[in-house]
Every structure is written in C-alpha cells, then in structure tokens.
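Most newcomers find our protein records easier to grasp once they have seen one. Each record describes a single protein and holds just a pair of labelled lines. A learned vocabulary of local backbone shapes supplies the integers on the structure line. Nothing more is needed to start thinking about how sequence determines fold. The record below serves as our worked example for the rest of this section.
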Amino acid sequence: MSKASPQQIPVVVLAGFLGSGKTTLLNHLLHHSGGTRIGAIVNDFGSIEIDAMAVAGQLGDSTVSLGNGCLCCAVDAGELDVYLDKLTRPVNDLHAIDVIVIEASGIAEPQELVRMVLASENPRVVYGGLVEVVDAAEFDATREKHPEVERHLALADLVVVNKADRVEDGERQRVLDAVRGAAERAAVVTASYARIDPDLLFDSRPSTERIGQLSFDDLHREDQHRDDQHRDGLRPGADHGGHLHAAYDSVAFTSEVPMDPRRLMAFLDGRAEGLYRIKGYVDFGTGDPRNRYAVHAVGRFLRFYPEAWPAGEPRLTQLVLIGSGIDAEALHDELAACESGSGSERGSGSEQSDAPHPADERGMWGVLRYVQDKGDPAPDAADYDTAEI
C-alpha cells in the first residue's frame, strides 16, 4: 500500500447564496490568517471586485499574486484542477500555500465542487470541508426562493449563520433551530460580518517554519491564551488584542497507551453532532508497530496517513478535536475509552471486548479503509454522503 503524505494541503469549499457573506468571510480569513498562506480560488462567472483583498479593479480571469503570499484566481469551475496544480506546486521542496479556499458562485451547486475536489488526482491536496454561509436576516426568503438550500445544509460540514446582529434574539434562535435541523451533524456557528475564528478552518502558521502536520506547543499556547481570557472575564466571542474567537470548543487528547482500532473507529463512526475537525497522530500499537497514523477528519470526511515513527520520538497518540456545542469532557472520556485494554464502552450497543487485540489483524481493517491507495479510484460525492464519515 502506498503511503500518502500527511503534508497535503486542505481545500475548503466556501458556499452560500448571493449576499450571504461569502466574500466577506474570505476577506476576513485573508486578513486574520496569522501568517498562514492562503490560496483563494473564486469560482465566479465574469469579473469580481474584492476590495478588502487589496486587489485593485476587476480580477476577471486573471491570476493575481499578493504581497502577503495569498494568491487569488477568478476562474470557471472547469479550470479547477489546473489551478489546484498551480497553487500546490512546491517551491524549493516546500509548499508555497498552506490552505486553499474555493469561493463558490452564489448560484453554484456546492455538491459539484465537493465532487471535483474529491475526484482530483492531485496528490498534494486533501478535501478540507464544505462551509455553507447563511444570511440569518434573509433565511426564510432564501429558503422560499431556493428550496435547495436544505440539501446544501445537509451536505455541509460547517454552517456559518451570518448577519446574526441583524435579527432579534428570538428570531435568531428560530433560524438557528431551523438550520441545525437541516444541517444534520454539521457544526453551526453564528457570526456578524462573517467574523469567525480561522482556527475553525485551518491551522495558523507559527512564526517559525512548521515542521510536520501539527505543532502541539502552538496548541497549548493557544489554549493557555483562551484560559487567560476567561480568567480576565472576557466573553468567548470577544475580539481581544486583534485575535477573534468564535463560539467553539477544542479538546486536546494525549495518551501513552496505544489506541484500539476497533474502538477508535466506533468513536469516529458515531462521533458527536457539531464536531467539525479532528487532527493529529494515532498510535495503534501492535496493530501497526512500524507506523503512526496521521488523521485528518472534517465533517464526515476522514483520511488516515501511515508514516514511519520518527527516530527518538515517544510513541504517543495526540489528537485535537474542534467543534461547536460539543461536550469537551465527554469527548475526552470517550477517547480514553478507546485505549487498548480499557474496560469502558461507549454505550453504542456494539459489542466490544475489554481485552486488547494484540494479534488481531482484522482490527485494523476499519482504519485501512480510510488509507487511500494511489491506485484507488477517487471517491465521488455519493461516496462522501455515505462511506466518508
């Protein structure tokens, strides 16, 4: 089985009907990227003006390179793979871009863009999720005019209910309830002026060059910053010192005990509503003693990337979970119950043995299902709806 690189660049699809705030959200991400290099593909027909991106005039079908390392392309959807290749081409063996955001046209079918990303043969990219932007003030009118919004919400991994400041509390709650009812397991966050924390979509690049997929030192520093804010009496959504925080929770899980593959897959198959991202490394112990498994999950999409254990590094499972409205303590306990030899069960009704599976090769089958071989056919949108978590 060929090994996929854990350094793949996430491709996020940003969708929503006309006027919902997609471009505002993209501009916000570009201006609060924390050093992360963003490649933006604007899937629109005709020209588009993006003042806040410091691009003067009309982009049309041109490609504009910005001084901050961002790159924006206004293109037809048929050119997507060409631009993915251009954006992800390494420079001096390093990625020039850390994340790619595709802003869909207001009349585009997001399922088709998701299908195109999943079907891409570019080995340097990985699907980063579908973000659907909803106008809270116009939600009823939008749903009446475009009933397909229900289907779009059902496919989304993250829903941003934008312009929340334009509706009263009772109306906002009614819209949120309707969106959550249509969005199934997606994380749902509210926003004004499309201001969400970029950490919901991508890892902020540290000041020093990142080596590897994750920097847990950065994570712990960020968690400490949030703890300091709470102690100082700041609300979770406050914009403090130029850093915007969204109403979401994160869970950091570290274990020196190898994870039981059956139990971890049961956790992933039935994971909590609102849990948007999972990232990190998993030690499956005797399931595969030679490799650790980098994991990338967004919404229902999941991939594992086996890679040899780095020499001299401790064999740990290190995971970060991010979501909206999640029970952080319960999720931590559920992950602890996935450790080999743990007697705890998740109560899902499935049979699980209290004993580890030291020689059970079949125990890894569920994991290997999500290790994509380069010779495998690319999944399409139908696979995403069913097979992909």
Notes: The chain is about 25% helix and 25% strand. The chain has a mean pLDDT of 74.
